[in-house]
């Protein structure tokens, strides 16, 4: 009986917390998504549009993560390998930490201070994350040289479609 109850509880939890690829892969960002504010490590406010403009003309990989996310931490070595094997590609890390203190601690603890990091001070539910249907982290997106979405949904840095998309854009 105890085992059955445990199985039922785990099943309910898993059903409520599973990742599901969005039904439609978007190729452009909405105006509201682009205007979403984030903060950098120094507490300066910026928008998704400003971040994309800084990387215009380059292929960009966006990595959504948090220090409290077990799956994110487990994926980190492979994410670093992806970054190391694509030196000509820009990487931006968007954190879903719950506080500025948590953001700062995670950057330090996970050796992320030498990377381009931002966090959603407004929390998980915001115009950008709602638009891209962010329902799980880690998540990876590949942005092309015109700031359009080339790879909309990947939940592992080992997803072969990420490298395939990078390679096709880098020709």
From TrEMBL:
<keyword id="KW-0676">Redox-active center</keyword>
<dbReference type="InterPro" id="IPR012336">
    <property type="entry name" value="Thioredoxin-like_fold"/>
</dbReference>
<dbReference type="InterPro" id="IPR050553">
    <property type="entry name" value="Thioredoxin_ResA/DsbE_sf"/>
</dbReference>
<keyword id="KW-0201">Cytochrome c-type biogenesis</keyword>
<protein>
    <submittedName>
        <fullName>Redoxin family protein</fullName>
    </submittedName>
</protein>
<keyword id="KW-1015">Disulfide bond</keyword>
<dbReference type="Pfam" id="PF13905">
    <property type="entry name" value="Thioredoxin_8"/>
</dbReference>
<dbReference type="InterPro" id="IPR013766">
    <property type="entry name" value="Thioredoxin_domain"/>
</dbReference>
<feature type="domain" description="Thioredoxin">
    <location>
        <begin position="27"/>
        <end position="171"/>
    </location>
</feature>
<dbReference type="InterPro" id="IPR036249">
    <property type="entry name" value="Thioredoxin-like_sf"/>
</dbReference>
């Amino acid at each position: 009986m105890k085992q059955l109850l445990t199985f039922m509880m785990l099943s309910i939890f898993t059903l409520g917390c599973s990742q599901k690829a969005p039904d439609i892969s978007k190729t452009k960002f909405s105006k509201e998504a682009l205007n979403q504010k984030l903060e950098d490590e120094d507490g300066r406010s910026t928008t998704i549009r400003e971040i994309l403009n800084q990387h215009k003309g380059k292929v960009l990989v966006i990595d959504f993560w948090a220090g409290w996310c077990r799956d994110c931490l487990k994926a980190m070595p492979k994410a670093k390998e992806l970054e190391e094997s694509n030196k000509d590609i820009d990487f931006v890390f968007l954190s879903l930490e719950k506080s500025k203190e948590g953001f700062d601690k995670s950057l330090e603890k996970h050796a992320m201070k030498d990377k381009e990091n931002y966090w959603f001070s407004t929390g998980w539910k915001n115009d950008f994350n709602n638009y891209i249907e962010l329902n799980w982290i880690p998540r990876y997106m590949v942005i092309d040289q015109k700031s359009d979405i080339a790879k909309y949904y990947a939940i592992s840095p080992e997803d072969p479609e990420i490298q395939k998309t990078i390679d096709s854009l880098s020709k």
